[in-house]
């Protein structure tokens, strides 16, 4: 069972290094960083790779629109060399409100993502690219020592952010994996995993790429404490159209722009140690190849609560 951690750290490079060292020592498969309005997470993970020896390190996810695919491939190759082959690149089109802040028009994100992946992965897998498509016209080459360029087996994997079936099909046919954030287990089993399989079949792949499922996590038996955490740390998600659409498609009741009880139960792994273990198992049963949990503290001492949560998850990772 692959169990990894996700951290929203975006300010301190030193903290990322400390988190990576601790995550490796605690026996987790990997560590993922989010991407926001702070440091470049690819660079931060490249530096953390120098301090670790076993841990898989990935970014979930960088917005594709502001980065040309050749630049994304360069970054991934450089980070993979720094991490001795342990880097994973997560990309996605982001969200309309976020790209509006950049002054970028999110025109047809599905076809954009398909071609973006083709350019990045071709460059990483072969070292050259000559792509003439509807969205990109790219000719170039890439040569980074120690980056694994030239073979799909050694190049850094490129995963796509997935919430809905169309993107899952793109990931199935054109990515090295799907990254799903906040997607409930029944929705994974009935919607995402089958679409991932159809995408793989469309491109005659032997099997679908890995499905990586990411959820917030809290060691708490009081739902109100989890609500308080979500209101403080996860308040943006019920307001974002793509997430609202996913929740509605999954049959999860919304509560205006706030977290509802149904959303908490569907998309946050919470409870005592036994319940956390059951929910991780349920995610694997739903089709997840890797479960990635983002630990949050609750109650009067959030730091101690988060540390206790990580300790429980570490035991699960070693089970």
What order do the helices and strands come in, and which of them pair?
Blueprint: E1 2-7, H1 13-25, E2 30-33, H2 41-49, E3 56-63, H3 69-82, E4 87-92, H4 96-102, H5 109-126, E5 128-132, E6 137-141, E7 158-161, H6 165-174, E8 178-181, H7 185-202, E9 211-219, H8 223-233, H9 241-249, H10 261-267, E10 269-271, H11 273-285, E11 290-295, H12 302-318
Short description:
The chain is built from 12 helices and 11 strands.
Characterise the protein shown here.
With 319 residues, this protein is α/β, with parallel strands linked by helices. It has two domains: 1-161, Luciferase-like domain (TIM Barrel), CATH 3.20.20.30; 162-319, TIM Barrel. The protein is built from twelve helices and eleven strands. The protein has an eight-stranded parallel β-barrel with strand order 1-2-3-4-7-8-9-11, surrounded by seven helices. Strands 5-6 form a two-stranded antiparallel ribbon. Helix 1 (13-25) links the parallel strand 1 and strand 2 (30-33). Helix 3 packs across helix 5 (109-126) and helix 6 (165-174) crosses helix 7. It is globular and about 55 Å long.
Provide the residue-averaged pLDDT.
Answer: 94
Number-wise, the strands total 11
Tell me the helix content.
40-55%
Q: What is the annotated CATH architecture of the largest domain?
A: Alpha-Beta Barrel
- Contiguous helical run count: 12
The overall number of domains is 2
CA radius of gyration: 19 Å
Secondary-structure class? alpha/beta
Biggest sheet descriptor: 8 strands, parallel, barrel
From the N-terminal CA to the C-terminal CA, the straight-line distance is 8 Å
- CATH topology name of the largest domain: TIM Barrel
Low-confidence runs: none
How would you sum up the global shape? globular
Order of helices and strands: EHEHEHEHHEEEHEHEHHHEHEH
